[in-house]
Amino acid sequence: MNILYAISFFALFSGVLGLLLAFSAKMFTEKNDNTVVETEEKVVKTSEVKIFALKVENNKKSRHDGAYLLLKYALNDDCPDIKKTPYGKPYLDGRSDVHFNISHSNEYAVCAVADVPVGIDIELIRPLSEKLIKRFLNDCPPDEAIREWTKRESFGKLTGEGFINKSTEPHVFKEYNDIPGYIINVCVYGNLRANGSRADGFVTPDAEFPEKITWYQEQESDQRQESVEE
Known about the structure:
There is one protein chain. The chain is of the alpha+beta class. It has two domains: 1-45; 48-229, no CATH class. It has five helices and ten strands, in the order H-E-H-E-E-E-E-E-H-H-E-E-E-E-H.
């Protein structure tokens, strides 16, 4: 009889233990599932820079018009009034959720759009004068001068304070060489990533950069405009 009681008790104990383990596994799985969902949501919400380019005629008006044509193209032709800050940086009136910056050089215009502040500069690759390098680029190597120049320009346009600014905000550059003979640098703010009790100097950008720039497609833009008019 004692043996039967022992067997029954063991069976009951095993059943209860099995239920507890199953419940724990379910809770663990749900927790992990929630973690995955939260991670996916963060990925979806990550800011992203979009960069557009257009070949234009080599004159001031065409470059200016081309740059703003790219802005309209990037915003699906929904472009509100453009105003300027006291430093002269253009922004969209009433659209604090959209930031943009434009640049042009010779036969090309470019435009960067994001939901965070952004700066962009394009330059024809060429040697800069020794006087210019010494005055503005701290005697950097001549073969690196044009690259450094686009970085300084894009950062100054990011802050809105211009080429010579004293901002010490962390920032990140992304260089593009999609256009032969030209160099493009895009700049966004970033955050210093902490390493233990100190900052290790690694800056995480506020937005993700695309792998390549996007070229303006005139036919696609025309079709989009026709659709709006209808």
